[in-house]
Amino acid sequence: MIKFIIRRLLSLIPVILGVTFFVFMVMQLAPGDAAKLLLGEGATQEQVEELREEMGLNDPVIVQYVRYMVNFCKGDLGTSYATKRPVADEVFSRFPYTFNLSIVAGIVSILLAIPLGILAAVKQNTFFDNISMVISLVGVSMPIFWLALLLVLAFSLNLGWFPVQGADGWKSYVLPAISLGFMNMASIARTTRSSMLETVRQDYIRTARAKGVPKRDAIVKHAFENALIPTITVCGIQLGQLLGGSVLTETVFAWPGIGRLMVQSISSRDVPMVLGCMVVMTVCFSVVNLLVDLLYAFVDPRIKAMYS
């Protein structure tokens, strides 16, 4: 198990290298000049060139990337072009907001999706099954930003139940968490239903029922436990996406998280800040995937034997 964890952690190195190189090159190819954006339209060409030289933007792209990675290996994520603050301070001050929102949205989606998927499988081809699958289809198809805007119009502007933006108190979490969690709930529910349908048709379930095991116990203790692997996989992927993909939701609700910070940094071509946000999101996604793999071992002893 320890060797497996070490191998997975070491695999983060090429992933981070690939992500940072790709983002760095895309930001370099994007139109616009960071120096001009910082100085404003009234700046002279001499001022722009002086700032570019000071920021090291006149160096070849590969030289800039290597310099960044050397500093990164020393634990330095660079300095923001816009705020002149260390990137690490800015990113890690925003990370708790994104983390908390992702956890709340993940808990909400899991608590709603798993019972919905189990009931849809148990009541296959009934009215409840059809309704649950329609809800899941809508959730998968609906854009997050569109749902977020509808929730703002309905519950913030018209009813005034929840704040429109910011992260002040538990009420601020409700609408962003629903926006993020609804799509994830749909995916988890569909996967749980499919996995449960395959499991409840197995011979050991019929044998358990024939021996007098109550239907509820057969579903919960036997079928669901053996159908957990696909559900855990989807839950892990969705949680990783929540941590790294809450950009639209944070923008709509003006949430002070990493996603909104990254959008603002892209607009101002703040390359160090964008790279810092992407590195943190990449590490979070990889760590979540590692935790999911370790969770497999507790659910299925056969997988634990493979890790040993």
What does this structure look like?
Belongs to the binding-protein-dependent transport system permease family. OppBC subfamily. It is found in: Cell membrane. The chain has 308 residues and is mostly helical. It folds into two domains: 14-73, no CATH class; 95-267, MetI-like fold. Helices cover 79% and strands 0% of the residues. It contains 16 helices and no strands. The longest helix is centred in the middle third of the chain and has 36 residues, at 87-122. The radius of gyration is 24 Å and the shape is elongated. The N and C termini lie close together (5 Å). The mean pLDDT is 77.
Condensed summary:
By secondary structure, this protein is mostly helical. It is built from 16 helices and no strands.
Short key terms for the protein model shown above:
308 residues; mainly alpha; MetI-like fold; 2 domains; 16 helices
CATH architecture of the largest domain: Orthogonal Bundle
Alpha-beta content class: mainly alpha
Number of structural domains = 2
Strand content: under 5%
The CATH class assignment of the largest domain is Mainly Alpha
Low-pLDDT stretches: none
**What order do the SSEs take from the amino end to the carboxyl end, as H and E?**
HHHHHHHHHHHHHHHH
If you consult CATH, what is the topology of the largest domain? MetI-like fold
Could you state the oligomeric state of the chains shown?
single chain
Mean pLDDT: 77
How far is the first residue's CA from the last residue's CA?
5 Å
What Rg do the Cα atoms give?
24 Å
Report the CATH superfamily of the largest domain: MetI-like
Pfam family, one: BPD_transp_1_N
Subcellular location: Cell membrane
InterPro entries: BPD_transp_1_N, MetI-like, MetI-like_sf, Opp2B
Protein name: Nickel import system permease protein NikB
